Amino acid sequence: MEQRELLKRFLNYCLTEKALSINTVKSYESDLKGFLRWIEEQNILILECKKDDILHYLLELKEKGFNSSSIARNISSLKQFFRFLIIEDLIKHDPTEGLKSPKLWLRLPKALELDEVKKLLSVMLESKYYLRDITMLELMYASGLRVSELVNLKLSDINFEAGFIRVRGKGDKERVVPIAHRSMEKLKKYLVELRPKLLKRNASDYVFLNNRGQAMTRQRFWQNLKAMGKIAGVNVTPHMIRHSFATHLLEGGADLRSLQKMLGHSDISTTQIYTKVSMDRLRKEYLKHHPRAK
């Protein structure tokens, strides 16, 4: 059954069987349309949706500037929708179970362990586009880019001599982000060896191109990353790469203000979620290795 048909059935159920107000139903409709658009972009089927997928979506809402009350409302809408799918016997497990308050999860974005990142960056794909895909992954992790910033990167945004890229983030705000030497070398190799073949007879200022010589899409990068994660045995999303960049920088001693600038956060409170992640990881390491921790 199509996802939009499921939404239509749910809204009708709310109006007729639950006798909810029109305003409440319209609120559900608005929230759920946004969620359904997002999962379609990620190639996720609604009946196979997992809790991690929902957390990923809610974290994106947070990064887009949604406040806690708006996110709480989205959680409520999602809970009602998935309960309906349970009632209709379309799913067996509710992926929204345990989601109570934005504060409970907004401070705990998922970050990969260093060895998981190494596994991902060591993946070898039997694909003629491998150099492009591994370069995108390397650049995303090395510079903490959002996936939209990565696919919209242009040749004119790269400064090889100074070792940085100019990034256009949310609200068309610009920021400058350093590029690691390893990422720089891989980027140069891609630009010389593969990009001209992808470009063919087209003209484009976009750095990363598909096989038709057009700019890569978010969806295509998501699919490629998923394939690399499957080979590496690592469950990964584009957001997790960005979270890993931030968490690993903090653990390495970076200060919060510098991280805020590199991530492009307008409010440092958004950046502070990573301090919680780092402390949780440190606590786990302590409990795991200290002889008197237990």
From TrEMBL:
Any GO BP annotation: chromosome segregation
Membrane-spanning residues: none
A single GO cellular-component term on record: cytoplasm
Record key words, sorted: Cell cycle, Cell division, Chromosome partition, Cytoplasm, DNA integration, DNA recombination, DNA-binding
Tyr recombinase domain span: 107-287
GO molecular function, one term: tyrosine-based site-specific recombinase activity
Domain Core-binding (CB), first and last residues per copy: 1-86
Main localization category: cytoplasm
Places the protein is found: Cytoplasm
Entry annotation: catalytic residues: 146, 170, 239, 242, 265, 274 (o-(3'-phospho-dna)-tyrosine intermediate)
Family note: Belongs to the 'phage' integrase family. XerD subfamily.
Self-association state and partner proteins as the record states: Forms a cyclic heterotetrameric complex composed of two molecules of XerC and two molecules of XerD.
NCBIfam families named among the record's database cross-references: PRK00283.1, recomb_XerA_Arch, recomb_XerD
Protein purpose: Site-specific tyrosine recombinase, which acts by catalyzing the cutting and rejoining of the recombining DNA molecules. The XerC-XerD complex is essential to convert dimers of the bacterial chromosome into monomers to permit their segregation at cell division. It also contributes to the segregational stability of plasmids.
Stated name of the protein: Tyrosine recombinase XerD
Organism: Thermodesulfovibrio aggregans
Classification of source organism: Bacteria, Pseudomonadati, Nitrospirota, Thermodesulfovibrionia, Thermodesulfovibrionales
